[in-house]
TrEMBL record, chain A:
Lineage, top ranks: Bacteria, Bacillati, Actinomycetota, Actinomycetes, Jatrophihabitantales
Protein name stated in the entry: nitrate reductase (quinone)
Family, similarity comment: Belongs to the prokaryotic molybdopterin-containing oxidoreductase family.
Enzymatic reactions: nitrate + a quinol = a quinone + nitrite + H2O
Domain of life: Bacteria
Domain 4Fe-4S Mo/W bis-MGD-type: 57-121
Major location category of this protein: membrane
InterPro entries: Asp_de-COase-like_dom_sf, MopB_CT_Nitrate-R-NarG-like, MoPterin_dinucl-bd_dom, Mopterin_OxRdtase, Mopterin_OxRdtase_4Fe-4S_dom, Mopterin_OxRdtase_prok_CS, MopterinOxRdtase_cofactor_BS, NarG
Length: 1236, 457
């Protein structure tokens, strides 16, 4: 080695050396012989500073109740009663010796949380806007100290009401006493219920899994009042509507540990390092196990670094890419040769072999057909029970139509007992009619929408068809091949000449023109995905996320993805299938949580409302929505959407009982109930008659009428106005009544709704009261009338779970709530107590008429044979509750007993049990256990019942009443499901039958859950959770029409919109719909670009984006990422101040210019709100907006379908999404002198 | 032979997701206080990029570390120590606050306290140094994820060194993350720069610390450290630096940054080395040989002679055992996948890195090849998105061979394990091609992929 050859290694020069040698004895340590350095031992008092800094008194386990799927367990360090910092727990139970572990879980955002505890943005005391508090005190004095009369006077006197409504968002908070703030809120609630009805209030608090009790206690309070809770999963556009459509399930996905089991992983619109930070390592490490990794992302996102290949598809075009991959899979693995594994899988677990009627079209040039409805037993003359919901396939052996086990027709009737399973017996489903001796080739017309404008056209392709029972039928599989452009010899129609034919939808070359991804790459990845699945028996996986899920047409995007994992037999297999992670939606102890939150132990049903429709109407976005929904329709449709706006379709859905609608009627439902009682009629007869006479109307058909406004909105665990409020400026203008920067024009008279009343004057400030609980100042607290100081996640007891890992674990107080803060639990109990007192003599006991939609997982799913719409208003049929009208239920409410009921487990839990996804659990044993564990309530409305008076007791109740955390319930639930299915299931939970996970268990360590019928996967024997494993391995049907996973959807509205099958639809054309400038053009307002709001690296939604640590590590305020090319067009340099302007609003931010970004697209990372570093905008002269100031709501009609099989409502299961990804904005450089 | 023990770290950059959790937990624990607002003992920088403080790697400008004199003697680049003593009262060459960043906060109180007013209240940024309103212009992580590229990456000293045109096209974009702490060097130039003798290596574990009583605030150490991992506390007037979390290490728990790393990419362990040979190794004439020279200073803990010498040097038996099962030893010497950061600074740094295996197959795949196929595997290494030359400038003073060898080993592991994963017969020729046995590649896989807590630390 060279160094060894070097003569004498030495330092510096001889003189220096001599000097230093002389000096070394003066130093405290030992100078090395070569004089290089000093070593020292002992005597280290000089470093005591660092030892002291590290010392602490205790470590407390807690977590962060934020909507991020993390559910990470943390150590919170406390010294001298002060929280100092946090670091991750590493004590997760092991995943097994051959696998990485879940330790550590956490991210920089979570690590920065303790900053909030003592930060200057902490809400320490109750605040009320000064002008309101003064009005209230004066009015109370005028009204002999009567709080309700005082509130009534304020809101009933326009001049008084206007004074505080107009002041919203303009500072001026003053401290209030807790009792006074609570009294003010309770008085407003009593007044609202009495005057307008309980359905004029609403609660918004999302994602119960992130802190079940904190969510549940407020939801329970609202349920006891009869006030609706607003949905969040669909409102956030996190709900993949494809999941209910295809699986009949809200969302069920593998835990991240199961990525390890995959040997081919596509990250599709999911930037794992940024948005699944604690889980990303599974992907990184699985690569070392030979997993191939693909990234599909429009930008060079953080996850692309890990990928073996990057497919930079143009934003929102992902379905074209997936269809091309599907084209290759179908051609090479189904048609050119038959892959046995795939064939067996799709015939058993999908609707592909089921028969569909072909409807003849009137055509000039020859005969052609369109796909119609599934063939049912009833169509073939069957008269057995529920024959209209027994779908039919052909048996390969007998060549006769048969109804296999497991269809919806077996699910609810007596004859279906023991038959609701996927056992085929002797039946061998015929996948295709191709080659069938009785089949004839026929032409079908199919819709296509691949023009950039999104306009529909048709394509002519062929399928083999056969006559059965007088109708021409084919299989879903044959239709799918036609739709994907995979031809077979002898079939008529226009087919692609090959992969390189760009003219026909479905081919790799076709997608290249749309997505920019090279055709060869698309074909190769599709082929590899399938090859890997065939070799590994289904271990190919797609991790998909908000990058593809937040578009208007996300459901079709997702259906093309799901087609890939389903065709290749990956769903229900460990290491395979879809992995959709948007929202921490999985409340693992589901049954107990639902019972607690819905107060189903005291009264049923609760009111739950689809958030998107609620806000669309309440914020008057409908008034600016000029889109005729005919533009979305298939050219093969009947025109049923033509001339109908989204508001019209919401009204249709409401009146048919498809989706909930609260407020429901233009009457107070308490007075409606009184009137029914007075009339002596049945509720349905009374309501029908009054609707007929015109005295009664649906509130959604006149949302601007004063009687139909939402009056009280309570927000907790959420920052609605700083985060999820798509169309934030519309919120500010119409719901809140504050200043806004809305620039849109209202719809012209000829573009207005047909069925919804237009009032010339749009209301500004519909809410009487916006009540918020938070621990920090947000864009929501800034506009609230009352802000109550909340305890943080380090200051209370609660429970956390997620779909990313299989554990339940606890929140614990590291310190008591400081200053005057209170837990949500204590706040709602305080509110309930004051409310109950004020209700005495004002409300007492009333009867409430609750209109309930047709519910999923109940027999309501059989309300609409063939999904054929029978609108009682137009079609000359009767309105029948439960069939084509909401069910009407009278519920008695003792408003003086709300507080007592809130803190006790009610008697309906004993008598009715709890029902989750169609399975009823007998709760007798858990209730008796809880009585002993929590103690019994003495006195009051809950006397003698198990106590729920503390947050820890509520945690205990949730755990005791859920199968995932109570083995006895899991086993009993499976036994009940065994009755219906006739397949063995209870053994899945038997290993834990005697196990009751207690709250103390979850405080000690994250606790793995028990396999339970509440979910579709299995953790039995320490397996990694993967969705639908039980369906595949135990032949338990999916909760769909056929009992299988659906490619084909035959509801009238699905054919109308042209989405019976997976199809590519481009992002909405904002130029065509709203007259925004063409993409790429440069005008006065700047360059026109796609405006995307993906999830941020420096925040979890709006949480942490104001945190000093996150701001210090990023750019310190709102930013917009753009490409150098776009920046150049408008003269923008990195860190310049810019303004983003479109019809929805105005945003001021600084530019981050980066080559990482594709030309034509900008990112404003999600939920950068207006609290930090937002100057006054040049364009508006007002405070710049939040990321959602540039967006608005778009309602997709197909999301409003209900009452039919898997397309039936359940809370957060189905509903229109609050999508926002299709938007465009103009960006320009502004003056660099900014004013605040 | 004079055996000493060194507490060391390896970071597997191939696993780094750039999340900065390490930075935050470190900041919270150690530097969340006045005087060090701008200080991040642990930071994560995006490469290509300028780093923190910006362009710190440009030693032509900052004069950090050591250099060889024409006569082959090792001398501080900023000037010999005599010069240091003679110029002690003049301002040393060091980055100013704008090279780090001017720390700031916001007027958060305004959100609650704002009186009734026309506009929605907002929290305006203000300097933590002056208290005055400011426009935020730079931070400890300003160019995160290529923010500001290509404009800002132009000033990346590494790119300048390799003469590489910045790849400004969207299609050819690449990035990776480089987390950094103090290197706890075997030959610390900070210590050698200190006129007060306040900086020392702990005898038993080699952790480099600043004696807070002895420090006189001359700031020569800031100049001397080429990694710029010594910081000046402007309130106390003393130097501060990463302590390798010695209060935790002493009681057997890993550093904060390592334990909180959700990428699970940090390894901590003991390395035995021959203290008598450090200067010689640091004086290796050819920069390219410095990596090998430093490895040659490490002692094989399984060698009985080393064990005896360690005992004589007073190193406890359990430390020798720890050195034997040290993941650092395994990654540096057994599997030879970890490399030092900037060996050319001649400080003998002891935080080493496994270079990142960026998309291997992209280029090959365009021609229809599957680079997972071991036949294509090694050709693919040269088609990496991240130029090998860039990695070589970071880890091997510009010598591409050791970097290529590491990447080939990682790629071979993936290829070999894919057969295992899919239940195919394994192919011994794959490990063989990178000079490893099947058992070795499986052991390396276990350490890199399974990476259990007990085996990382």
């Amino acid at each position: 080695m060279n160094s060894r050859e070097h003569p004498v290694a030495a330092l510096d020069d001889p003189l220096t050396e001599a000097l230093l040698r002389a000096g070394r004895h003066l130093r405290p340590g030992v100078v090395s012989a070569d004089l290089r350095t000093i070593t020292r031992e002992g005597g280290r008092e000089a470093d005591s500073f660092y030892r002291d800094r590290w010392s602490y008194d205790k470590v407390v386990r807690s977590t962060h109740g934020v909507n991020c799927t993390g559910s990470c367990s943390w150590k919170v360090y406390v010294k001298d009663g002060i929280i100092t910092w946090e670091s991750q727990q590493t004590d997760y139970p092991t995943v097994g010796p051959d696998s990485p572990e879940y330790e550590p879980r956490g991210c920089p955002r979570g690590a920065a949380f303790s900053w909030y505890t003592y930060s200057p943005t902490r809400v320490r005391y109750p605040y009320v806007r000064g002008v309101l508090l003064q009005l209230y005190r004066e009015a109370k004095a005028r009204n002999n100290g009567d709080p309700v009369a005082a509130w009534a006077e304020i809101v009933g006197t326009p001049q008084l009401r206007e004074r505080y409504v107009k002041a919203r968002g303009s500072g001026g908070f003053v401290r209030a006493h807790w009792d006074e703030a609570v009294e003010l809120a309770a008085a407003a609630q009593v007044h609202t219920i009495r005057t307008w009805g309980p359905d004029r209030m609403a609660g918004f608090s999302p994602i119960p899994a992130m802190s079940m009790v904190s969510h549940g206690v407020g939801a329970r309070y609202h349920a006891l009042l009869g006030a609706p809770m607003l949905s969040f999963y669909d409102w956030y556009a996190d709900l993949p509507v494809a999941s209910p459509q295809v699986f009949g399930d809200q969302t069920d996905v593998p835990e991240s540990g199961d990525w390890w089991n995959s040997s081919y992983l596509i990250m599709w619109g999911s930037n794992l390092p940024v948005t699944r930070t604690p889980d990303a390592h599974w992907m990184v490490e699985a690569r070392y196990r030979g997993q191939k990794v693909i990234a599909v992302s429009p930008d060079y996102a953080d996850n692309v670094k890990f990928a073996d290949e990057w497919l930079p598809a143009q934003p929102g075009t992902d379905a074209a890419l997936a269809m091309a991959m599907g084209h290759v899979v179908l051609k090479e693995f189904f048609v050119d040769r038959q892959t046995q594994y795939f064939h067996d899988y799709v015939t058993r677990f999908t609707d592909l072999p089921f028969l569909v009627t072909l409807d003849e079209l009137d055509e000039q040039d020859g005969q052609a057909y369109t796909a119609g409805k599934f063939v049912t037993s009833a169509d073939l003359g069957g008269t057995e029970e529920n024959a209209a919901f027994k779908t039919v396939l052909l048996d390969r052996t007998t060549r006769q139509p048969v109804v296999p086990n497991g269809t919806l027709g077996d699910r609810f009737g007596d004859a279906g007992v023991g038959r609701w399973n996927l056992k085929l017996g002797d039946v061998s489903p015929q996948l295709s009619l191709y080659g069938d001796a009785d089949a004839e080739p026929v032409q079908v017309l199919l819709p296509r929408f691949d023009e950039p404008s999104g306009a529909g056209a048709t394509m002519r392709r062929g399928v083999p068809a056969r006559r059965i029972g007088g109708r021409l039928v084919t299989t879903v599989f044959d239709l799918l091949l036609a739709n994907y452009g995979v031809g077979r010899d002898g079939l008529p129609g226009d087919w692609p000449s090959g992969y390189d034919d760009p003219s026909q939808p479905g081919t790799p070359a076709w997608q290249e023109e749309i997505t920019s991804v090279p055709a060869a790459a698309a074909a190769r990845i599709g082929r590899e995905f399938a090859e890997n699945a065939a070799e590994s028996q289904g271990r190919s996986m797609i991790v998909m996320g908000a990058g593809t899920n937040h578009y208007f047409h996300s459901d079709t995007i997702y259906r093309t993805f799901l087609a890939l994992v389903t065709l290749t037999g990956c769903q229900g297999v460990n290491g395979g299938g879809w992995a959709h992670y948007v929202g921490q939606e999985k409340v693992r102890p589901l049954t107990g949580y639902s019972m607690y939150a819905a107060a189903s132990d005291w009264s049923r049903p609760p009111r739950t409302m689809i958030g998107t429709a609620f806000f669309y109407l309440a914020t008057d976005q409908w008034r600016y929505d000029q889109a005729d929904n005919g533009h979305l329709a298939s050219p093969l449709g009947t025109g049923r959407f033509a001339g109908r706006t989204a508001a019209d379709l919401i009204a249709t859905s409401a009146r048919l009982g498809w989706m909930p609608s609260y407020p429901t009627f233009n009457w107070n439902p308490l007075e409606l109930a009184d009137a029914i009682e007075r009339s002596g009629e049945q509720p349905a007869d009374f309501v029908r008659a009054e609707l007929g006479s015109g005295k009664l109307g649906f509130a959604c058909e006149d949302p601007d009428a004063e009687a139909n406004w939402p009056r009280v909105l309570t927000v907790w665990r959420s920052n609605l106005l700083g985060s999820s409020a798509k169309g934030d400026e519309y919120f500010l203008k119409h719901l809140i009544g504050a200043q806004d920067s809305l620039r849109a024009e209202e719809a012209a008279p000829d573009a207005r709704p047909a069925d919804v009343r237009w009032r010339d004057e749009a209301p500004a400030g519909k809410l009487d009261l916006l009540l918020t609980m938070d621990f920090r100042m947000t864009s929501t607290t800034l506009f609230s009338d009352i802000v109550l100081p909340a305890a943080t996640w380090y200051e209370k007891h609660d429970l956390s779970s997620t779909d990313m890992h299989p554990f339940v674990h606890a929140f614990n107080p590291a310190i008591p709530p400081p200053w005057q803060t209170r837990t949500d639990f204590d706040t709602f109990h305080a509110l309930a107590k004051r409310f109950s007192e004020l209700a005495a003599g004002r409300l007492d006991t009333r009867t409430d008429l609750v209109a309930v939609p047709l519910m999923h997982d109940t027999a309501d799913a059989m309300a609409t044979p063939h999904g054929m719409v029978r609108d009682w208003r137009d079609d000359g049929v009767d309105a029948v509750p439960g069939v084509n009208f909401p069910k009407l239920v009278l519920v008695e409410r003792d408003y003086t007993a709300v507080a007592g009921k809130l803190g006790a487990l009610g008697p309906l839990a004993d008598s009715l049990g709890a029902t989750t996804k169609g399975i009823t659990f007998d709760l007798t044993k858990p209730i008796s256990y809880l009585g002993a564990k929590n103690g019994l309530v003495r006195g009051g409305a809950g006397a003698g019942r198990p106590a729920l008076g503390t947050d820890a007791q509520a945690c205990e109740a949730i755990l005791a009443m859920s199968g995932t955390t109570n083995g006895q319930l899991a086993v009993a639930g499976y036994h009940s499901l065994e009755q219906r299915t006739g397949v063995q299931l209870a053994d899945l939970a038997a290993e834990h039958e005697g196990k009751q996970i207690t709250f103390a268990d979850t405080q000690a360590r994250p606790t793995p859950v028990i396999t339970s019928p509440e979910w579709s996967g299995s953790e039995t024997g320490g397996r990694r959770y993967s969705a639908f494993v039980v369906n595949v391995e135990r032949e338990k049907p999916w909760h769909t029409l056929t009992g299988r996973m659906h490619f084909f959807l035959d509801h009238d509205w699905m054919s109308e919109i042209g989405e019976q099958l997976p199809v590519y639809r481009p992002p909405l054309d904002m130029h065509r719909l709203f007259g925004e400038p063409q993409l790429g053009s440069v005008g006065e307002l700047g360059v026109s670009v796609r405006y995307l709001t993906p999830h941020s690296k420096w925040s979890i939604h709006s949480e942490y984006q104001d945190n000093l640590f996150m701001l210090s590590l990023s750019r310190g305020g709102p930013t917009i990422w753009m490409s150098p090319q776009d920046a150049k067009k408008v003269g923008v340099s990195d860190n310049d101040w810019i303004e983003a302007v479109n019809r929805n609003g105005v945003i001021v931010a600084r530019a981050i210019v980066s080559q990482r970004m594709p030309e034509g697209t900008v990112y404003m990372y999600h939920a950068q709100e207006r609290v930090v570093d937002v100057p006054i905008a040049e364009t508006s002269g007002k405070r710049g907006g939040i990321h959602n100031s540039g967006t608005r709501l778009f309602i997709k009609p197909s999301h409003l379908i209900g009452g039919y099989a898997q397309l039936a409502y359940a809370f957060n299961y189905l509903g229109p999404t609050g999508n926002q990804r299709d938007e465009v904005t103009m960006i320009r450089r502004r003056s660099q002198e900014v004013q605040y | 032979m004079r055996v000493m023990a060194q507490m060391s770290m390896v970071m597997n950059l191939d696993k780094c997701i750039g999340c900065h959790t390490c930075s935050v937990t470190c900041k919270q624990a150690w530097t969340n206080r006045a005087g060090v607002e701008y200080v991040w003992f642990n930071n994560v920088e995006t490469r290509p990029g300028q780093g923190y403080p910006r362009t710190y790697e440009d030693q032509e400008r900052w004069n950090g570390g050591w250099k060889l004199t024409r006569r082959g003697r090792l001398t501080l680049r900023a000037g010999g120590r005599l010069k240091k003593l003679s110029t002690i009262f003049s301002n040393p060459l060091l980055p100013n606050i704008s090279d780090y960043y001017e720390p700031w906060t916001y007027d958060y109180e305004n959100l609650i306290a704002a009186p009734a007013q026309q506009h929605i209240p907002v929290a305006q940024p203000k300097s933590l140094l002056t208290g005055r309103p400011m426009k935020v212009q730079w931070s400890a992580n300003w160019d995160d994820a290529l923010g500001g590229a290509p404009e800002l990456t132009k000033n990346d000293p590494i790119l300048a060194k390799i003469g590489e045109q910045v790849r400004t096209e969207f299609e050819n974009t690449y990035l990776f993350y480089l987390p950094r702490i103090c290197e706890h060097c075997l030959n610390p130039s900070c210590a050698a720069s200190c006129p007060s003798g306040a900086i020392y290596k702990r005898t038993e574990d080699g952790i480099v610390l600043v004696d807070q009583d002895k420090c006189r605030g001359w700031r020569m150490c800031v100049t001397g450290c080429p990694y710029k991992k010594i910081y000046f506390n402007h309130r106390t007037g003393k130097a501060e630096k990463c302590t390798f979390c010695f209060p935790r290490i002493e009681v057997g728990i890993p550093t904060v940054c390592a334990e909180t790393c959700v990428g699970r990419l940090r390894y901590i362990g003991v390395v035995l080395y021959d203290a008598d040979r450090v200067l010689e190794a640091a004086s290796t004439p050819d920069d390219h040989d410095l990596y090998a020279a430093q490895r040659s200073v490490f002692l094989d803990p399984d060698d009985p002679a080393v064990q005896r010498a360690a005992e004589e040097a007073g190193i406890p038996h359990d430390w020798v055992q720890a050195a034997q099962r040290s993941p650092i030893w395994a990654l540096i010497s057994k599997y030879q996948v970890a490399l030092p950061l900037h060996p050319e600074y001649r400080t003998m740094p002891m935080v080493w890195y496994i270079p990142p295996l960026s998309p291997v197959v992209d280029v090959l795949a365009k021609d229809g090849h599957d680079a997972e196929d071991s036949g294509n595997l090694f050709g693919a290494i040269d088609a990496l998105r991240i130029p090998i030359g860039y990695l070589a400038e970071l880890f091997t003073a510009g010598d591409p061979k050791p970097v290529r060898d590491v990447l080939a080993r990682l790629a071979a592991m993936r290829s070999y394990m894919r057969d295992v994963n899919l239940g195919r017969p394994t192919r011994p020729d794959i490990p063989d091609a990178v000079g490893m046995s099947e058992a070795e590649i499986r052991d390396m896989y276990r350490l890199l992929a399974i990476a259990k807590y007990d085996e990382r630390y």
